[in-house]
Amino acid sequence: MTLTGENFIGFKNSAEGNKSFQAFGSTTNDYLPGNFTIATKEEFETVLALADGAFPIYREVPAAKRADFLDAIAHEISELGDALVERCCQESSLPAPRIIGERARTCGQLQMFAKLLRDGWWVDARIDVALPDRLPLPKADIRRMLIPIGPVAVFGASNFPLAFSTAGGDTASALAAGCPVVVKSHSSHPGTNELVSSAIIKAAKKTGMPEGVFSSVYLSHEDSVNLVKHPVIKAVGFTGSRSVGMRLFDAAVSRPVPIPVYAEMSAINPVILFENALIEQKDKIAKDLAASVVLGAGQFCTNPGLVLMVDSDASLNFRTAFAEQFAATAPAPMLNRNIHKAYNEAVKSFQSAPEIFVLAKSAKEAAAERYEAHPVVHMVSASDFMSKKEFSEEIFGPATLLVICKDQPELQATLQALEGQLTASIHAAPADEAALKPIVNIVSDKAGRVIYGGYPTGVEVCHSMQHGGPFPATSDARATSVGSAAIYRFVRPVAYQSFPDHLLPEALQNANPLNILRLVDGNWTTNPIT
Amino acid sequence: MTLTGENFIGFKNSAEGNKSFQAFGSTTNDYLPGNFTIATKEEFETVLALADGAFPIYREVPAAKRADFLDAIAHEISELGDALVERCCQESSLPAPRIIGERARTCGQLQMFAKLLRDGWWVDARIDVALPDRLPLPKADIRRMLIPIGPVAVFGASNFPLAFSTAGGDTASALAAGCPVVVKSHSSHPGTNELVSSAIIKAAKKTGMPEGVFSSVYLSHEDSVNLVKHPVIKAVGFTGSRSVGMRLFDAAVSRPVPIPVYAEMSAINPVILFENALIEQKDKIAKDLAASVVLGAGQFCTNPGLVLMVDSDASLNFRTAFAEQFAATAPAPMLNRNIHKAYNEAVKSFQSAPEIFVLAKSAKEAAAERYEAHPVVHMVSASDFMSKKEFSEEIFGPATLLVICKDQPELQATLQALEGQLTASIHAAPADEAALKPIVNIVSDKAGRVIYGGYPTGVEVCHSMQHGGPFPATSDARATSVGSAAIYRFVRPVAYQSFPDHLLPEALQNANPLNILRLVDGNWTTNPIT
Predict the structure, then answer these.
(1) SS (H, E, C) A368-388
(2) Per-residue pLDDT at B136
(3) Are the beta carbons of A485 and B493 separated by less than 8 Å?
(4) What is the ipTM metric for this complex?
(5) CB distance from A447 to chain B under 8 Å?
(6) How near does any CA of chain A get to the CA of B99, in Å?
C-alpha cells in the first residue's frame, strides 16, 4: 500500500507544505517509506473552519446515526487488514500480537461508544416538572441534559498507535459526544495515522456525516500549541509526556476563553507489598511483577515504576526471588529513538545517584542498533527516596524502583509524599488487614484506580474504568480517558426551562421516546411524564 | 447581639491581627457595629492545617452522618431568628422579605443535599464484575464511584449574603461531598458571616464533626489569592466579578499542582423577543421584563441585561409599552458603595457613547445618600452593538440594553457574536416557530439555561438546574453552582479493582447495603450482586 503523506483536511487530502518527515523503524534502524507533509497555515485554518462548520450539523445528528458512524469506523479499520498491522508494527516496534490486540481494543472502544449512544442514558437527563400552584412562588418546569462542547483537538500518543491515537479513546468519545475532532498525528506513526484516518473518512462518507467531522494533520510543535489556542477548539485530549502536556495545558488556560485540557501525563504507579502476601506468594508476585514491569518494553502509563515494602525477612526473600525473575526478562526495542535515548539517560542518571542500588537487570544485553531497552530494577531506602524529588520521576521504560521502608509509619509517610498517580496496587494477605485500611485510604486519595492483588498494566475498557488521577497523572482528575465515562470530558449540561414539549430534545420530552432512565422529580425512572 | 469580629479557626475563635474593618450600611449611610479582624499569617496557616487534618476524618464520616450535619446547620441558621435577618438587611440593603426568602432557600439547599446524601445514588456507582474465563484475557472486577476531592475554598458573594455565601450553595455542596470548607467571608457582610459561621460550628460540634471541617476567615486581597494557591486547597468556589474571578482562576491554574476553580463571573443573559409574542403579549412582557430587570436592584448574575428583537411595528409598540412600564419602576439602594459607584460609572460610560440611546428610566429620582441605583433602559442598533465590545459588558444593576436587529439573520449574527452566558430567554408565539429552531440552537450553545416564555431571574434549586455556562459566565461550563448537581464540582472518580468485598466502600459492596441505583455490567439496577 502506497502512503500519500497527505493531511486529511475534512474530505479532501492535501499536502501543500514544503516540510515533510519520515517515520523511523527502531527494529530495522532505518526510515520507513512515505513522506508526510506538515500542514501549511492555510491547511491548518481550513481544518478548523471545517470543524467549526461541521459542529452545528453534527451535534444535530441523532445519537443512533452517530452510533452507526462509530460502528462504521470500527468496520473500516478492520477492513484495513494486515496492511495496518504491518505498518503499525514497523512504526512502533511493537510485536504483531500486541498490535492485533490493540486493534481489537480500538474497534471495541468505538463499538462500546456506539452502544452507549444507542442506550442513551449517558446524557444524564434530569426533569423537575412545573408546580404552578406552589407557594410562595410557582415552580417552573426545568429539564437538563448533557450536550456536546464543540470541536475537540486530539493528540495521538506514541505508545498506543491505535488505541490512544487517530481513532483511539479520545476521538471515539469526542465523536460519540457529538464533537468534531481534529487529530494532530503523532510523528512516530504517521503511516498508521494515514491508514486509520482514511478509514474514518470512509466511514464518515458512508454514514452521511458532515465534512469536517474529522480531520487529521501533521503539525509543527508551534502549530500544535496553536491548535490548542485556536478559538474553534473547545477541549483537548492528550496522552504523552508531562512537559508537552503542561505546555498544552498552559496554552489552554491562558487563552482569552480558557478550555479544558485532558492531558494524561506522568505516573509511577506504586505497588505496595505487605509482609504476609510476600510470605504466602513470594514467587508468584516476583514473576508477575517482573512481567508487568517489562510488558511492552515498560512503555505504559500504568507501568509499575515504584514498589514499596517494609523491610523484613519476607521482603528480603522476595527481593532475591524478584531479582532472579527479573534477570530472565528480555530487552525489547522501544517505540522510537527519542524514547530510547531518554530511557538510557534516565537510568544512567538514577544510577549515578549514590543512594540508588541496582537490584537486578535483564541478563541479556540490549541491542543498541534495535533501540532496545535494558530492563532494570533499582533500590533505595524510603528516607533517601523522600529526600530527592527526582527519584519519584517517571522513567518511561522497563525500569522500576524498590523502596524499602523501615516500618509501617514510614511506608505511610512515603505514600503521602507521592504526587498524584493513575493507579496504586496493593498485595496483602488476611493477616495484613490491620495495616491495610490506612494504606487504602492514602492511595485512594492519590490515585484514580486502586488494585488489590494485581498489577496496573492492562486497562479494561468498561463503564467502571477510571483511567485518570490527581495531578500530574492527569491535568484533570475528574476525568477518565478510558471507558465509557470518557464521553463526559466533551459535554456540558444545559437546562431548558418551561419549553414546549415538541421543542425539547427527545431525551427530555414527556413521552420519553428514547426510553432512557431519567431523574424525574428526584426519582430515576423510564416512565413517560403524563 | 454583640459581634466579636473574630475569625473562625476550626472550633476556636481568634482575632490576633491588628487590621480590622467595619461593615457599611447603604440605607443608613453609616458604618455598622462590629470590628472584623483580618486573619494573620499564623491564623491563615492554622486554618489550612486544620482543614488538611480534618479531611481524612471527614471523608470517612458516613453519608447519613454528613446529612445530619447539613440538617443541623439549617436548623442552627433558623435558630438565629430575627437577629440574622436584621443584620443581613443592614449589611446588604436588601429588604427583609427577600432576606427571609433567601434564608429559606439557604436552609432548603442544605436540606436538599442532606436528602441527596441519604438517597445516595449521586456517587455514580458503576460495577463491572469479573469474568475469569474471558478470552483472550480474563476480566477483572472493577468498581467505580465518586469520592471527595479535598479541602475547598469558598468565596462569599456580595449579592447573596446567605444563599451564595458562608453557608451557601458552594459550602453546602462541598460539605455534602465530604470536603472540609474554608470560607473567605465577603467584606460587605461580615456580621452575617459571623452569625452563620457560629451556626455552622455549633452544628459541627453537635453532630460530632472533626475540627477543621469548617473555618471562616477575613482575608486581605493578597491572602485571598494565597488561599487559592495553598497546597491544602483542592478546589475553589467563587461568585463575583470577572476581574476577581479571573485573578483566582489564574492563580489556581499556575499552581505547581493546578486545581479546578468554579468561578461564576459575568453574564448579560440575552432575552429574545419574537414578533408574534410581542403582538400577542406586548403589555405582559413589558411589565414582567421591567420587573425582572429591577428585581433586587438588578443585582443578580441572571439579570436580563440584553433584550434583542427584530425591528417591526410590534417591536416599536413593545418599546413604547416597556418604556412606560419602566418609568414606573423604583430606585433601590445597592449592596455596597463600590457597587453603586461602579453602576453609576458604567451607566455614564454607556450614555457617553454616541451609538447608545436612553429609551426609558425610572421616573423617580435615586437617593444618592442611600446609594440607590437609578433603573435605566438603553437602546442600540445591532450593527452598532456588534461594533464595540464594551456594549456587551455586564452592567451590574437595574439596567438593560435593547438591541434592535434589522432582520432575522442579523439577530442570529448578534447572538453568535455574544460571549458565553448563564441564561438565554426566548419569547415566541406559535407563528414564530419557523425562526425559532436556529435561535434555540445558537443560544443552547452559548448558555447554560434556556428559558421559554419567562425571565432569567429566579433560579430554582433542584436536580435539573444548570446555573453555569460557557466562559465568561463561569470558568467551567461543565459545572453548576445551584442545584444538587453542584456536588459534582468537589468529587472525582476512583476505581477499585479486584477488591475483597469487605474492603470496598459500602456503595460498591455486593449486597448494595445503601440500596442505591448502580450501573452493573451496563444495566442500572438496585439489585445486589450475587
Answers:
(1) HHHCEECCEEEEEEHHHHHHC
(2) 87
(3) yes
(4) 0.97
(5) yes
(6) 14
